[in-house]
Design goal:
Helix content: 10-25%
CATH architecture of the largest domain: 3-Layer(aba) Sandwich
Oligomer: single chain
Number of helices: 6
Strand content: 35-45%
Order of helices and strands: EEEEEEHEEHEHEEHEHEEEHE
Amino acid sequence: MKKYMKNLLVEEVSFPHQRYVLVKLTDQQPLPDILPGQFVQVKVEGATNTFLRRPISVNYVDRNNNQLWLLIQTVGEGTRTLAKLKAGDYLNILFPLGNGFTIPHTTADILLVGGGVGVAPLLYFGERLHNNGNKPVFLLGARTNNDLLQIPMFQQFGEVLVTTEDGSLGEKGFVTNHSVLGKRTFSHIACCGPKPMMMSVARYAMANNIHCEVSLENMMACGIGACLCCVEKTVKGNVCVCKEGPVFDIRQLTWEL
């Protein structure tokens, strides 16, 4: 796919959680085709210790309003600087980057599993599946009910199941402990979140012969496969996650499951 480097207009900034900022960007021209699971590289202006672009998953693409949404967790100086953006500012991004999730050719139930900020790319994927006639089931995990993000948006596109570590909403525990995994059959699984969680989901998928894709969160600096800092070992050798991923079929990875 063709890549673009553009200064996009910040149209709206909101704070769905004390550790997250949702930035909605727009352009004078229609946004290019963007696939669920792809990401952008954001240039951070005004952060003295941030020299490299920051990779951010595409949270959602609102075609009606020509908006690209970025859900950003504020964990360092770079992302804290991005949280200071205001409507009317401009943000320079390189996009769309990487390879996204596969759209299955089936109307059977498809499970989308997310934990923490890993839920971000599943919203756009869920919409694509819904519009394609698929039946997405979202299984979202967080520490507490206050840490769950964008639940009403997810509910527009499919069934939403929840786990919280403290039991404040949904079933208590981790996503891999949810009772739905023992009750229902899924044809495909897509997963994004902390690596231990993704490995547990991959283990479940392998044991039940379910096609499964995961979105890796290796450290990325360039976004185009030049710097080699995001290398992941696969059955075909070492590859750059930013170029060959970030989405991988678990059968490509060398994880010990």
